[in-house]
Amino acid sequence: MANIAIIPARGGSKRIPRKNIRSFLGKPIIAYAIEAARQSGLFDTVMVSTDDRGIADVARHYGASVPFLRSAEAANDFATTAQVLIEVLHQYSKQGQSFEYACCLYPTAPFVTGTLLTEAYNLLKANAFDTVYPVQQYAFPIQRAVRLADGKVNWFQPEHALTRSQDLEPAYHDAGQFYFFNVPAFQKTQRLITDNTGGIVVSEMQAHDIDTETDWQLAELKYEAMSDER
Length: 230
Known about the structure:
With 230 residues, the chain is α/β, with parallel strands linked by helices. The protein contains six helices and eleven strands. The strands form three sheets. Strands 1, 4, 5, 6, 9, 10 and 11 form a seven-stranded mixed beta sheet that branches. It has a two-stranded antiparallel ribbon with strand order 2-3. A two-stranded antiparallel ribbon has the order 7-8. Helix 1 (29-40) packs across helix 4 (114-126). GO terms for molecular function: N-acylneuraminate cytidylyltransferase activity.
């Protein structure tokens, strides 16, 4: 069976207009995801799921396929990533195509490389995970987090108020880049994160969540710094 990379890129981004095809250091940000997927050599199909013909044109220009446009139901503000993936897999199924593994690769993840995708794919298969995705370690111990209410600070976990940072267990969060998953397992649970999910650690310099103009500028600076080190 074949593998597919699915890049979800709807046209209705609110915080950063036209975010998915905005220029990131000289080319549309979605191009980085398409190129990483193609360079990995892991996928028989690299496709973009979008409701926007402008995004579709850009995606095709950089080598992705857009065999159909996303439905209105899967393109509204409340549609989940899982709903988008289910629709894509169903459309391919109607055409007689099925897949063993798939990767949901976000269009605003320029730090993803073919090497990272390959590492995740190998981990997914070697451990028979349902899904593997990149995670980053929190910069500060979450056990020493505080809440702020009416200007007053209180510990979430007061038992760790005096615990040394080096004695606390590291915690991680989703790096927001991709989910590499077993298609039959996903179709059964319709969930990307299950109790059989693996994580692959990426450094602070290997990912950056982009939601604001400041995020965008910092991501470009970080990407340039990473490029200088290669």
